[in-house]
Amino acid sequence: MGIKPLLPGPLGFGTAPLGNMFRSIPDEEATATVEAAWNQGIRYFDTAPFYGAGLSELRLGEVLADRPRDEYVLSTKVGRVILDELEDPADRDLGEKGGLFEHGRANKMVDLYTADATLRSIEDSLKRLRTDRLDIVWVHDVAQDFHGDDWLTVYETARTGAFRVLQNLRDEGVIKAWGLGVNRVEPIELTLDLDEPKPDAFLLAGRYTLLDHNRSLQRLLPAATAQDIDMVVGGPYSSGILAGGRHFEYQKAPADIIAKVERIKALAAGHGVSIKAAALQFALAHPATAAVVPGATRPSRIAEDVAALKETVPAAFWTALRDERLIAADAPTPTA
């Protein structure tokens, strides 16, 4: 198991912002951003039907349709089916993520994790992405942040439906890998304890970042490492606050988070380190991490991400973060 041999490198492109997350993005800007990612050498692209009710997949597919399919790795997600019926995006019940894609398409989204819905979701994604195959499929958001107290019931539906379908598709060679794509550690911990089905990897968003990593270090990442199951780190900038944005956990950042970010930025500036380099290299330093997939909606941001991976970060910077208790004492770093 694991997906490191499948991925073309440690940096991917997360396309949630292309679904008009937080703001309405012109088609030309979205296209230019995907093209910039390609031109900068990025060959792993992650998307989902949830991102703007299919908008992200449509925009990504428009660009990648002209690229050789064997030259890139593509992942999308199941768990939500996009209908022809319309609704007001601003009125959707998205649990803790209310209003996240209120600028996306108006097509109605339905949460469905059954076997039939999983197959339908994949078929629909292939059409929107204008491709004949997917490399990785994640089961999306089977967690508390979207389903509240009912999340275990939703998880069980996914376990007996989506999980088994995806494992069969992997075993048949239709897809190369599968796993969960979530914003919480609990469903991943639960899945690691299963005898079967067994995933290849997980996409964990926001839970292994400079701002939030203690819970992942306790049990999840050691267990994943022991089982040779790789992690893809989504949201390495914590919804943007670590890259100059104003959001944390997809909402306006609270005062304590803003203060913590300012402390990290001050230390980074003192050591000549960019905050993006600190965020990406921290996430990649854990042996379980196979890749990071930051998102972007402007072409210039892609070049910044690529440069951040190449930047030299002195060991003294990580020591300073530990001394100031801004990262956990046992968190792996690139130089220790």
Structure description:
With 336 residues, this protein is an alpha/beta fold. It is built from 12 helices and 12 strands. It has an 8-stranded parallel sheet. Strands 4-5 form a two-stranded antiparallel sheet. Helix 1 crosses helix 2 and helix 1 packs parallel to helix 11.
Report how far apart the termini are: 27 Å
Q: Largest sheet at a glance?
A: 8 strands, parallel
Number of strands: 12
Low-confidence stretches: none
Radius of gyration, CA atoms, in whole angstroms: 19 Å
Q: What level of helicity do the residues show? A: 25-40%
Strand order of the largest sheet: 1-2-3-6-7-8-9-12
Task: Give the count of helical stretches.
Answer: 12
Task: Give the rounded overall mean pLDDT.
Answer: 95
Principal-axis shape equals: globular
Order of helical and strand elements: EHEHEEEHEHHHEHEHEEEHHEHH
Which structural class do the helices and strands define?
A: alpha/beta
**Strand content of the residues, in percent?**
15-25%
